[in-house]
Design brief:
383 residues, Rossmann fold, Ribonucleotide Reductase Protein R1, domain 1, 6-stranded mixed beta sheet, 5-stranded mixed barrel, 13 strands
Length: 383
C-alpha cells in the first residue's frame, strides 16, 4: 500500500488591515503583528502636506501624552481645552518634543480634526536629565515659564535644602526667575536655621500656609499675566497651594506618612491651569531626584554665589575646592563665611554631574566632606 504524501501546510498570508479606518487596532500590544503589518501600511506620502517652515503659534499646551496633547486655543473667548494629535513627522531630538507651556501651531485635517503641525522656539524652560533611557536625554518639564516656585515644607516632611539647590541651578540654566516658597508654616513657631541661610542669600522667598491662607495672595499677584511652575518634593503641599490659588481645580491631595515623613505622588502628570488675572500655573509631580542635562562640573561655582566670591582667590583657576592646596573656599568655610550645608550640597551636585548626572544616593554626610573639613559637621555651622 502506497503511503500518501503529506503536503506541507501553506502559511496563510498576512491579512491586510485598513489602518486608516481602524486606527484603534494600531495600539495592540502584539509587537510581532505590528512588524508584520508595517509592510502593508498604505503609502500616503504623496498626498500629505508639508510641515510649515514658518508659522504663527495659535495655542498653548496644557498637558500631553506621546501622541496627543490638550491645548488652549488663542481664539477661544473662554479657556477651553481641545484634544489634538501631534503630527508624527515632528521628531524628538536631544530634548522632549513637547511640554506644558509650549506655544504650538494647530492646523485642521480634512475631516476637521485638530492636529499640531509646529512647535515654536522656547524663550525659557525647566528641564532635567531624563530618567527614560529610551527617550531624549533632556526631559523638558515645562516651557515658556517666567517663575519657578520651589516649594519646601518646614515640617511633615521636614525642610530639605538639597533639592532646592538643584532647582535654583535648573532655573538659572533655563532663564527662569526662582522664588522659594516655604510652606506649612502654621506647623512651627520659629523658622529652622537652614531656612535663614537662604534668606541671607538674598533670594526671593514667600512663607505660606494653606490652612491659614497665608501668602496665597502673594503668589497670585506674582502670577499676573505670567506663567509659573510649582515644583518640589512629594508631600510639601504643591497641590494644596494650587487648590488654594484655584479653588475650582479638581486635584487630589494625600496624607504624609507618619513613619517616613515622606509624601506620595498626588499629582501624576504635569498640567497647566489658567488664573482669572491672566496668569497660568503649572503643577508638577513630586520629584525625589533631579539630574542635570549637559552641564560642566567646572561651571558649578557660578550657581553658588557665596562660593564663587571666594573661588577667585584660590591658588588654581580650575580649583574644585575639594583637595587642592591654598583653596580660599575651604578657608572661608573654616572661618564661618560660607555655610557648610551649602558646601555639602555643592559637593553632592558636583559628584552627581561627574557620574553622568546620577545622584549619589544616600551618602553619609561625613563621607562627602574633605578630610580637613570633616570635623566641622559636629559644629553649629548655620551662620
Amino acid at each position: 500500500m502506497k503511503k500518501k504524501k503529506l503536503e506541507k501546510s501553506k502559511r496563510s498570508e498576512t491579512r491586510i488591515k485598513n489602518w486608516e479606518n481602524r486606527y484603534n487596532e494600531a495600539f495592540s500590544k502584539d509587537s510581532i503583528r505590528h512588524r508584520r503589518a508595517e509592510v502593508h501600511l498604505p503609502d500616503n506620502s504623496q498626498h500629505e502636506s508639508h510641515l510649515p517652515e514658518t508659522f504663527e503659534p495659535n495655542a498653548t499646551v496644557v498637558s500631553h501624552s506621546k501622541k496627543w496633547a490638550f491645548v488652549l486655543l488663542d481664539t477661544a473667548t473662554e479657556p477651553k481645552e481641545i484634544q489634538c494629535k501631534i503630527d508624527e513627522r515632528l521628531r524628538e531630538k536631544e530634548s522632549s518634543l513637547i511640554a506644558p507651556g509650549d506655544r504650538v501651531f494647530v492646523d485642521y485635517e480634512e475631516k476637521g480634526e485638530p492636529i499640531i503641525r509646529g512647535i515654536a522656539p522656547r524663550k525659557s524652560k525647566l528641564s532635567r536629565l531624563s530618567i527614560d533611557r529610551e527617550g531624549p536625554p533632556e526631559q523638558v518639564i515645562s516651557a515658556n515659564v517666567d517663575i519657578l516656585f520651589v516649594v519646601a515644607s518646614v515640617k511633615q516632611p521636614t525642610f530639605k535644602p538639597g533639592l532646592i539647590d538643584r532647582f535654583l541651578i535648573v532655573a538659572e540654566n533655563g532663564n527662569v526667575e526662582p522664588v522659594i516658597v516655604i510652606n506649612k508654616i502654621d506647623l512651627i513657631d520659629t523658622l529652622p536655621e537652614e531656612v535663614k541661610i537662604y534668606q541671607n542669600l538674598g533670594l526671593k522667598m514667600l512663607f505660606t500656609s494653606c490652612v491659614k491662607k497665608q501668602g496665597i495672595e502673594d503668589i497670585v499677584n506674582l502670577l499676573e499675566n505670567k506663567t509659573g511652575v510649582l515644583a518640589g518634593h512629594s508631600g510639601v503641599g504643591k497641590t494644596s497651594l494650587l487648590k488654594s490659588i484655584c479653588p475650582d481645580v479638581d486635584a487630589v491631595t494625600l496624607e504624609i506618612s507618619q513613619k517616613t515623613e515622606k509624601g506620595k505622588h498626588a499629582t501624576t502628570n504635569t498640567r497647566l491651569y489658567c488664573l482669572p488675572n491672566g496668569g497660568k500655573l503649572i503643577d508638577t509631580p513630586g520629584i525625589r531626584s533631579l539630574g542635570f542635562w549637559d552641564m560642566d562640573p567646572r561651571s558649578l561655582d557660578y550657581y553658588f554665589p557665596e562660593i564663587s566670591r571666594f573661588a577667585e582667590k584660590c591658588r588654581f583657576n580650575d580649583c574644585s575646592h575639594i583637595h587642592e592646596p591654598n583653596c580660599a573656599v575651604r578657608e572661608a568655610i573654616k572661618n564661618g563665611e560660607i555655610p557648610l550645608i551649602r558646601y555639602e550640597s555643592y559637593l553632592r551636585i558636583r559628584k552627581s554631574i561627574e557620574q553622568d548626572g546620577i545622584t549619589p544616593g544616600r551618602m553619609r554626610k561625613e563621607n562627602i566632606l574633605p578630610r580637613d573639613l570633616s570635623h566641622f559637621r559636629k559644629r553649629n555651622h548655620f551662620k
